[in-house]
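Q: Hi! First time doing this. I have a protein sequence and I read that you can turn it into a structure. Is that right? Here it is:
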Amino acid sequence: MAAAGMAGTIWGPRLYGKTAWALPDDLWGTLIAAQRLGHLDLAGLYTSPTQLVSLPGAAIILLPAIAFIGAAGLQLTVPHAHGADPSLWLFAGPYQVAISAVVLFAADAIAERLGATRPKRFWLAAASATALWSVTVRWGHPEDAVAVGLLLYAILALADAKAAKSAWLAGAAVAVQPLVLLAFPLLVAVIEPRRLPGYVARAATPGALLLAVAAAANWTATVHAVTSQPNFPAIDHPTPWVYLAPHLADGQVAAGPGRVLAIAAALGCALVVARRCRAVRTAGRWEGQALTEFLWWTAVALALRSAFEPVMVAYYLWPPLAVALAAAARDWSRLLPVGCAAVGLTFFSQVQWHDPWAWWTPMVAGLALTLFFARPQPRRSRRPGRSRPAPQVLPEPGEQLAADGAP
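A: Yes, that's right. Below is the predicted 3D structure, encoded as structure tokens:
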């Protein structure tokens, strides 16, 4: 994936008569945030030009790349017309792909846990890596991939009755990218009540500590970035919800209030999960059907972001696609159509339509279709009145005579 991504960004534009590299615009701001974090400039973490709206974990995962860039003497700047092919992309590109691959390993671990065969795991890896291209190579958001990967590992730990490990993994996922908060109510729904306070405390600790440190350094910038979640409808894809979103300066809109609706809908999913998965709370290790169903509901919860987002970017569709692929890993009848739908939606979402209805409607419809293909198959049960007849046992010699009344 790294090799294909680097080739596509460097030599791919030549097919269209361009000479500048096709670099992901959003990565550079996060790299600058990581550089400031490495220099302990916490006050500048959420100030221009970082454009950081995630928690500080998004910058922390890029610190090794910043250390190499500094040691090599490379200059970190935002790409512009006269410097659109920075040599640091030769390292930053493969690095972000490498750390994003945690979600591929997590999905494969879940597939192995579900008993998927090697051909199924190969198809899962191929489809997942292709869909991941939109997040990393195209848009430069490795924090989304790392967060979803940690979330999948948290679900796997919970399925193996390792609640404490699951809580720390879920907390690390939130600290990297808060989008996984949509799945957090589902995790809480299957925790035993006596373990719930400890689980929530562990999961909240990483993100709360990082956010508190950043807010102490620059309260105004941190609170504005994290709560308002500004986005640009003139650049990205506005949805019908943009008409209800609060408008900010410079043509921006606040995406934060719309995401509150998604969280409320995710709570509804958690209520369904709490009712359907009540037995798994005390069952120890989950069976394959329980894990599959929980993954599917997690994908539904993550898809709610796309349903209520006022302004979207193509990679917003990826988290539910990644989880849906893992949920469908056990059966070819689900894995094949889910993989094809996820790959098709990944590339179709790159079209540059800006009408609030023209882009959002087919994207949400495609996402719903993918979730439909990935839905868990109900357990087969015999029809009433069609029970299997009891096996016939031939009588021993002499028994037949006794049954007929013979002496």
